[in-house]
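Predict structure. Chain length: 308.
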Amino acid sequence: MTISQTVTGDRVAPRRRRIRMSSVFWFTLPAAAIMLLVLGVPLVYSFYYSFTGWSLVLPGSDQDFIGLLNYTDVLGSSEFWAAIRVTLIYAVVAVSLECALGILFAVLLNMEFFGRGLFRSLMLIPMVITPAVVGIFWKLLYEQDSGVFNYLLGTIGLEPVPWLGLTFALASVIIMDFWQSTPFFTLIILAGLQSLDRDTVSAAQADGANALQVFRYLTLPHLVPYITIAAAFRIIGVMADFDKIFLLTLGGPGNATTTLSVYAYNTGFKVFDIGRTTAISWIYVVFVLLISAPLIWRLFRGASVNRH
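Prediction complete.
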């Protein structure tokens, strides 16, 4: 190849890349525009209405601009802070349990044993069930008089447990979410385990490292990005849970299981205060971002360090 051919090739390659990127842009532009229209316009409207006194029972109130009054009322409400407390307890406990059991199940599924494929398939079932169906299903299990759990307790001579009573309601919701979402952690962490360099593990074992040391110093550090991804997604998902909680407990008894999403629903569809509801929603968005941002920042920081 001559020098002129090399120079010409070097000039053509960037031009081809520009043409390719231009084609990608124009092909994705319609979908991006539709997404912006479907998602962006309602967001802008909701942000505007959070500064109004719009109530469905007061015609014309959607034009009543009241500034930050909705936000100050919400932030000064004891019910709002009770919902924050319930949401945090629910998110922290559920995600911690799912992470711990997800690691355990992933380690087990990474081993060779009879029936591993069947066990893996069965584990996926809870994850793919619609949350509304999950709520109804667990309500049947938890019922005080006719529920499956209390029936089983009765067969061994134990008293029925008020699973959906004031004492156990939040724990029952956490158990329900734990059952449905642990497979998600398991799949993500199993993918991390299967990407682990086996030669490194074999070298560590040849140097005398036992199974616990291999897990502590090799496997667990390798899994940190995978755990971070799964935890970030699940924290956002848990804090957005509504349908299965509402179908199971309606947010009760009292406010025992009233998370932020249930609190926003009650404000909008029981009190019909749309302005206040949209303010709750925007505070909720900021709250979720504050909770999930450290995990996302750690993930991107780790990826940046690995590239360099």
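Summary: The chain is about 75% helix and 0% strand.
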